[in-house]
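Check this.
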Amino acid sequence: MTLEFDLPARWRSLLTEQFSDAIHDVQVTWPETQSLVVSYRVIEAFNPEFASSIIENPDGHLSAANRVLRDLLIEGGSKGLSPFIRLVDLPSDRHRTVRQLRADDIGLMIGIEGIVTKISGVRPRIYRAAFACISCGHHLTIEQPNEQELIEPIECMLADGGCGRKKRETRFELLTKDSEMINNQFVEVQELPEGLSGGVQPQRLLGIAEHDLAGILNPGDRVTVNGVWSIVCSFAT
């Protein structure tokens, strides 16, 4: 049976009870630190059922946790920050090697163990894109989940103060200076050599390090990539 939780309320209780000092550290070290590291073991001790639900519904949990973290920083006097949660110390049954990844893992929280073999240079990418409607001048902001495409508004929303024109009826101009940029780096992760037998060739996975993770990894580093496995190989942490 899957239990239903009020995710924002539970995350607020967890973060205020267990991570108040760490949240303060994020506040005073921003932008060098843009994330709060949360151990799964701490969540299990707080509420085992709540911890288990993270594995099955990671997107919902991470969305709620990030909103709560942002609100706590605002309440602490820091506005305009976009912090996020990084989950670590996942249970051993959630760990995978690259070759063990299967369709059943899609959408679930997992940890992939490996060794960094290649890295790209750190480059900026648009994280939240600001647009202006050419027809009325209204400004809109659209989150950009990956670097492979630029998602434009489909409508100048009346409810948001716009003119209501759809994309085919107007044009949206990208406002680069008003857009939020983040650091971005491609990282290739290969299976650990001790996990291979005979002449088996190691398999590799291409991932992306973003925000405060970009620029800290080097070839040869052993890592556990914790995140949500998706078809495009995009990870939260």
Remarks:
- The chain has five helices and ten strands.
- Helices lie at 7-18, 20-29, 40-46, 48-56, 58-75.
